[in-house]
Specification:
2 copies of one chain form a homodimer.
Chain A (H helix, E strand, L loop, with lengths): L4 E5 L7 H10 L4 E7 L18 E6 L3 E6 L3 H12 L6 E8 L11 H11 L4 E6 L9 H17 L6 E6 L9 E4 L5 E4 L2 E5 L5 E5 L2 E4 L7 H6 L2 E7 L9 H5 L3
Parallel strand pairs in A: 1-2, 1-5, 2-4, 5-6, 6-7, 8-13
Antiparallel strand pairs in A: 3-4, 7-13, 9-12, 10-11
């Protein structure tokens, strides 16, 4: 059987240790093409670049592996991969391993998961992986076993049409990880805060520094799983319709 | 009764005719504070600015109206409004009127709707308005009656917790608009395409220019409503869990 064509990307850039760990783990499973941003793009969410031009550069190429960097966002990388690099849609997309979690509502700010949603929109089974450690020195070794397990399952079984996976991995030694738990997205919010400073000319500027507050308390949520040393797997879709609100709203008009 | 505090924002910048039409329409309904980007931010989705500093400048101030511009994204504008401009959460958020539609899956690329989702995450009834015309010379006059109607309904009734509204308005003369239809998000996808060019040094670069393809065919979808000269109203929430996929996936692990 022909090896599947697998696209790898992330939002922390090609230089991040997390994408290196992902490439190393996934490489035995198919023909791998990596297209990733040339600089960190955390917090870019599902942004696409329409007001400036995109660059795409070959970084390395061998018989079973190609690597490109792009000056755009993760969503740009996926679209460029489809149309310019591969000239087809890949069989699978894996994104990450992100330096930091994307549990709960953080998925909507996440470039890692935007690439994965791009895959789902195109009908491609896609998975985003995140480690609960923001440091560049994070240890990705305990993650690899779980990344490989989940990737193999997705390659073997596919995913339901329009569904992708958001995987978050606890940052503890491997022997303390209790297993994999399929979850729903926890409720949460950000408590906004800004660091207000003055430039040398006396003009104010701000650095964003909010704090995430988990509100969901169910043991079936991704945040609970992660906090309790489980790898959380949330099946994700892109229909944002609040179906339960349709009928009540109809009475308004 | 005290007038409600209403935050207005958009993603086309403070200079766009669409936000001027929105401010004019909403102004009689409350105390209005506008915080909007200083330059167009279309396609920025739910991006937040964490890797560079934010500026916030007062543009104008009178007894019942204040206007600020910010060098960040729509989501940044909302967060800065809460914490720095208002020092509280506003009672309502209205975003737009966007130059161009945000029907179907385009909500995930939309800065207009990111601001609205920020509102929903903070528990604030919030609505995004978009006109089906990308031109800076679009005629927003026929929209105003519908914007005002929907805004008044939201101010009078609120919205269910965690639900916001995505409103799309057809670009036809007012007498051809058939009414308001509560809908679900249509299925759709983007057919990627890039314009490949060479710079004067012979190096390639790309401009993104995809084409949106509507896949949903139900008369209960927003795209159908818009195509048939109805104002579409989709209730939107931010839980992306594909609930129906949870049980099947549990058998994997």
């Amino acid at each position: 059987m022909e090896k599947p064509l697998i696209l790898i990307t992330n939002d922390d850039s090609l230089k991040a240790p997390g994408i290196r760990a992902l490439i190393e783990t996934i490489r035995p499973l198919g023909r791998i093409v990596t297209v990733a941003p040339d600089r960190p793009q955390s917090g870019t969410a599902h942004a696409v670049t329409i007001s400036h031009m995109l660059r795409l550069d070959l970084v390395s190429k061998s018989t079973d592996y190609e690597e490109y960097c792009c000056n755009g966002t993760p969503a740009d990388c996926v679209k460029l991969a489809f149309k310019i690099v591969l000239n087809r849609r890949p069989d699978f997309i894996f994104s990450g391993i992100n330096h930091g979690t994307n549990t709960s509502i953080n998925i909507i700010y996440s470039g890692t998961m935007a690439a994965v949603l791009e895959g789902a929109l195109a009908g491609i089974p896609s998975v985003g992986f995140s480690l609960n450690n923001y440091s560049l020195n994070a240890d990705f070794n305990p993650s690899k076993k779980f990344v490989r397990n989940i990737a193999e399952k997705v390659i073997a079984n596919g995913l339901p049409q329009g569904v992708c996976l958001n995987v978050n991995i606890p940052d503890v030694p491997g022997n303390l990880i209790k297993g994999i738990k399929v979850c729903r997205q926890s409720e949460g919010t950000w408590k906004e805060d800004f660091d207000e400073r003055e430039d040398p000319n006396g003009r104010k500027y701000y650095w964003m520094k909010g704090v995430f507050v988990n509100i969901g308390d169910g043991q079936d949520t991704d945040q609970w799983a992660l906090d309790n040393n489980y790898v959380s797997v949330v099946p994700v879709q892109f229909d944002l319709t609040a179906t339960q609100a349709i009928d009540p709203l109809k009475s308004w008009f």
